[in-house]
Amino acid sequence: MAHLKSDYTSYVHKNPSRKSCEQTIKKILTREFEEFGENRHFKQASDFMVYFESLHPASASLTKQVQRAVNSLNLPRDENGYFMINKTAEEYAAERELTRLLLDAAVQDLSNTTPVLLKTESWKREYVMHLLEADSYVNSISPTMLETSNGILIYTSDPESLLIHLSSFIS
Fold first, then answer.
1. How far from 142 is each of 35, 118, 154, 162, CA to CA, in Å?
2. Rounded distance between C-alpha atoms, residue 10 and residue 6, angstroms
3. Do the Cβ atoms of 39 and 85 come closer than 8 Å?
4. Cα separation of 38 and 80, whole Å?
5. pLDDT band at 13 (very low <50, low <70, confident <90, very high)
6. Measured between alpha carbons, how far is 8 from 130 in angstroms, rounded to an integer?
7. Average pLDDT, stretch 44-54?
8. What distance in Å separates the CA atoms of residue 128 and residue 110, rounded to the nearest whole number?
9. What is the band of 114 on the pLDDT scale with cuts at 50, 70, 90?
10. CB neighbours (10 Å) of residue 73?
11. Mind listing the pLDDT tens digit for each residue in 61-99?
12. What is the DSSP letter of 37?
């Protein structure tokens, strides 16, 4: 009977595997994210040690195993250095790049505009669009234009005036 007890004791004191540590760390961070919407407690492997040491005896090998798990997860960190569980490193890098690129951009609501299609041959679309962009009146009533497969799509706040203005070139 004593033999069984010592086997059980050695099993209980055995460090968790790296995979097991990874799963636990993911659970901890997921719970943190679900509860607070962000992580504000875990920046490094040592921050997880309180949890792991509550289940396993503190040791250098346990610390090393948790560090390996954190490194293996390759979690992105936010601007304050906290681990992020809700995004991959690639997603976070893409978001940061998009943020950098859009710093001087502006968002314009086009819901109050009407699209008008100016049908034209493909070989002259680019040049016609260039001339329309240079036209101050078109610019005053049209926030944007797009080349399409059938012509140029012009979004305008005053479709009637745009049509009259464009007709003046055709007549």
1. 46, 13, 7, 8
2. 6
3. yes
4. 11
5. low
6. 80
7. 94
8. 22
9. very high
10. 17
11. 999 999 999 999 989 998 899 999 888 888 988 999 999
12. S
Determine contact, residues 55/13, Cβ cutoff 8 Å.
no
Length of the chain: 171
Q: Confidence class of residue 15 from pLDDT cuts 50, 70 and 90?
A: confident
DSSP assignments along 57-113, one per residue: ---HHHHHHHHHHHHHHT--B-TTS-B-SSS-HHHHHHHHHHHHHTTT------TT-
Q: Which pLDDT score, from 0 to 100, does residue 6 have?
A: 46
Cα end-to-end distance, the chain, whole Å = 106
Name residues whose C-beta falls within 8 Å of residue 29's C-beta, 6 or more positions apart in sequence.
39, 42, 75, 83, 85
Q: Which two tokens stand for residue 19?
A: 């995979």
pTM over 0.70: no
109, two tokens: 């609501």
* Angstrom distance (rounded) from CA 56 to CA 66: 12
